[in-house]
Amino acid sequence: MNFWETITGSDLTRDWKAFEVRAAELPSDYREAWKEITMHVLSYSDFTGRNLMPILDNALGLLEETASDGQSVHEVLGDDIAGFCAALAGGEGARTHRDRWREQLNRNVAKKLGRLGG
Question: How much is the pTM?
Answer without folding.
Answer: 0.70
